[in-house]
Amino acid sequence: MKIKNNTRPSVRKRFIAFAFIAIMLLDVIVPTIAMAITGHDNMPEYRSFEPVTTTNMVNLFNGDFTYNIPLMEVPGGYPLNLSYHSSDVNNEALSTWVGMGWNINPGAINRMKKGFPDEFNDKSVTYYNRMPKNWTVGVNAGIGTELFTGEPVSLGLGSGIRYNNYNGLGTSISSSFSVAGVLNLSGSMNNGVFGFDAEIRPGNILNAVLKQISAVKEKN
């Protein structure tokens, strides 16, 4: 009788082991990010504020129930109240720090100032403004050609590279097209921003027409 002793793990067990190791390493290297909901008007404390003078407990339009319990009055005439809103109780609602649907808003103390606060009275203040000098260095290259001699049509291309200590590295590409000084078209691309310009000079058109008329009269 032969007894088979198979101590080597199967392929399936190896695959499961490697999968768990990969998941563990992934959670260590790139942990899962959990973000709390802190978006202003989505928070119940902000959305369900209720004044202490509220008297209408039932909304006659949609039937929502609102209940207000006065708690105390801070010296100086500021009341604190505990309010309940039935409209804030649903499957997607968030609970406040006093319970689902309930809210207590103690208010806040805000300080507004113009210039320096009052405790800075009769004190010397030193200003520091240390801004590095803004400088730019660059190289530009261009080429231009005239396509026709009789009626000049010119075409130009140019490119450049520059470095600014505030904005970093930048590139530019430009092109121009001109017809007898009457029509000028130009385009440029600066750091991915495209620009286009078109210019028509009616005065040059009129001068060209008058020259043609004068040439015809001289021939006749």
Instruction: Tally the helices.
Output: 3
Arithmetic mean of pLDDT: 77
Form type: elongated
Which value, in Å, is the CA radius of gyration?
39 Å
Q: Structural class per helix/strand content? A: alpha+beta
Largest sheet composition: 5 strands, antiparallel
Can you tell me about this structure?
The structure is a single chain. The protein has 220 residues and is an alpha+beta fold. The chain is elongated. It contains 3 helices and 8 strands. It starts with 10 loop residues before the first helix and ends with a helix. The strands form 2 sheets. It has a 5-stranded antiparallel beta sheet with strand order 4-5-6-7-8, with no helix packed on it. A 3-stranded antiparallel beta sheet has the order 1-2-3, with no helix packed on it.
